[in-house]
Amino acid sequence: MGGAVSAGEDNDDLIDNLKEAQYIRTEKVEQAFRAIDRGDYYLDGYRDSAYKDLAWKHGNIHLSAPCIYSEVMEALKLQPGLSFLNLGSGTGYLSTMVGLIIGPYGVNHGVELHKDVVEYARQKLDEFIKNSDSFDKFEFCEPLFVVGNCLEISTDSHQYDRIYCGAGVQKDHENYMKVLLKIGGILVMPIEDQLTQITRTGQSTWDSRNILAVSFAPLVQQSRGEGEKPDTVQLPLCHPSLSSAPVTVRSLQDLSRIYIRRTLRNLTNQDSQGKGTVQRVPHKRKRRRCRRRRINTYVFVGNQLIPQMVESEEEEHAEEEQKEAAAEEEEERDIGDIEIIKQVNELREQILALPLPESLKAYLLYYREK
């Protein structure tokens, strides 16, 4: 399923196309998509197809089409501090984007059937935290992934504010999924070839809305011998006093790191605003390719019929567009008091400038490698 939008040259192009097609509609979802390069979740040798609006699968590794993820992120209506469960969490691409929105005081859990995919997701998460400058622009809720069949989650499991299931759900499993949802929560999952948003309005009442026609592989039901017990999936522990609400209890060190990074980020933002200079990063200009062609025609000169080449209307439009593009580029060069500068990781620079031991700086940087 996919192919709803044009292919992009890079991640920003892809997001521009998703916005233009109205799959991405809110600023926070756009920021999350721009922060994480979809190509980073592809295996080497396959990245060329990362910015097409198509699903990708290699062995057990799978990514849904970008338009699907966009609709899911919008339908979940994410807010800071919410708890999120991803059933069939795969590469962790979606869970990582969710973590950028729900922030450090949220809960972010994923269940994935294949052990090798969970290892792949953990590797990609580690690379994002350590290597991506985008990470420092957000307060992050790190996803926790567990191996298991999402149809065999413990019956006494806690409930979540937001749930997404990334595989086709048969009607007889619909209620199983709904039980995992808190009252007031939102569940997004594919049912009978429709991506569906379900809101729990009461103890036994739900509102449903179809979002998009989709085609998903169905949930896997593990076969077992007679009398064989299922391998019950235990989700990450919740706070013992809140049996229905998962709570991540952070250490004092973690809380201190969150507060210090938040303070430095706020100071950086205030400093940028105080300078009164708009900082912009040069962006690529998209150009429409226009064919230049001429039309053969004939004119009479005396008694002779002589062929002549006449410019077509299409060529005139092409020339006009080229002139307009040249004028716009000239205008961009003459930007007055708007300074175009290279993008700098301001938070990283602030931390490195602190009079602290290198080991503590590394901790504040989340052990960044670059």
TrEMBL record:
GO molecular function: protein-L-isoaspartate (D-aspartate) O-methyltransferase activity
Keywords: Cytoplasm, Lipoprotein, Membrane, Myristate
Organism: Gambusia affinis
A single GO cellular-component term on record: membrane
Main location: cytoplasm
Coiled coil region boundaries: none
Protein's name according to its UniProt entry: Protein-L-isoaspartate O-methyltransferase domain-containing protein 1
Membrane topology category: Lipid-anchor
Region of interest called Disordered, as start-end residue ranges on this chain: 311-334
Cell location: Cytoplasm; Membrane
Biological role stated in the UniProt entry: Substrate recognition component of an ECS (Elongin BC-CUL5-SOCS-box protein) E3 ubiquitin ligase complex which mediates the ubiquitination and subsequent proteasomal degradation of target proteins. Specifically binds to the methyltransferase cofactor S-adenosylmethionine (AdoMet) via the N-terminal AdoMet binding motif, but does not display methyltransferase activity. May provide an alternate maintenance pathway for modified proteins by acting as a damage-specific E3 ubiquitin ligase adaptor protein.
